[in-house]
Prior knowledge:
This protein is of the alpha+beta class. The protein has 2 domains: about 1-175 and about 275-315, FAD/NAD(P)-binding domain; about 175-275, Polyamine Oxidase, Chain A, domain 2 (Alpha-Beta Complex), CATH 3.90.660.10. It has helices spanning about 15-25, 70-75, 105-110, 150-160, 170, 230-235, 240-255, 305-315, and strands at about 1-10, 30-35, 45-50, 55-60, 85, 95, 115, 120-125, 130-135, 135-145, 175-185, 195-200, 205-210, 220-225, 265-275, 285, 290-295. Strands 1, 2, 7, 8, 9, 10, 16 and 17 form an 8-stranded mixed β-sheet that branches. Strands 12-13-14-11-15 form a 5-stranded antiparallel β-sheet. It has a two-stranded antiparallel sheet with strand order 3-4. A hairpin with a 4-residue loop joins strand 16 and strand 17 (about 290-295). The longest helix has 16 residues, at about 240-255. The protein is globular, with a radius of gyration of 20 Å.
Amino acid sequence: MAQETAEIVIIGAGMAGIACARQLAAAGRAPVLLDKGRGIGGRMATRRVPLAGVEVSFDHGAQYVTVRDPGFAKAIATAPGSSADWADGAAEPHLVGIPGMSGLPRALADGLDIRLQTEVISLSRMPDGWQVQTSTGTLNAGLVVLTIPAPQAAHLLAKADLPGLAVGKALTSVQMDPCLTLMAAFPADAPRPFVNRSDTDDPLAWIAQDSTKPGRTDRFVTWVAQASPGWSMRHLHEPADAIAARLLPRLCDRIGADAGTALHVSAHRWRYARVRTPLGRPFLHDARHALYLGGDWCQGARAEAAWQSGSAIARAVLGIETAA
């Protein structure tokens, strides 16, 4: 297997990892991002399905982003055409990626050294840095940044068996909930009773008419429905087809559609989707082990929170501000 050396390895090519890598690269550093998935952006994901000669997309992870942080707004401005406001009637603008949610992180990651479909198998602390064993080879790095969900980071570090790890207790205090997501497409004349609906007391806690987002095809009416944390936990280990079969009748009941008219139905399992108990600070740092950890789980379940966490890590690595 291949072996190479990297100055900084960032594990996770979601919004936190991208934000961290962008700032480091802009300062002349050479970060390498690793992600086990096939696409960039983590939960800012888009599923594409061919249907009657048309590619239909579903934003089956994050539904939109808010832009309150000036740094995040500045970054988005560098990627024109990759996002647009969603006219969903919200009190503050909801930004969505073009042509799907994954379009925004892909644009923000342009020019970065990202290795997809590269699963990190183990981390080993060496006298002069880290050895990162992956499914495609080995990287030796001076610094490691973990921007994967907190439970996954805790599991990876537990296997590393690091003496005196300073971040372990704080990391395990973070609680994350799963989310089971339904994707369904109907004919263009199907009912369209609302753009989106949120009801935490309903097993379908979020329902969005995905086809109302800018840049999507109008050939079909597409919906994304996300189950509540409790319902998701109860059915987490069921096959995707079984999850879809359970959720479709619920969706059709809420939107007044006939389940028999659905042209596409599928489900996706997000094991770590929602931040229930955040860390309460921008990131974790273990100076002894040259290790940083961050993500949306640090301060809240928003893509913008992930961006802020990754940016704060980059500033700390560059010595722009005191490490947390």
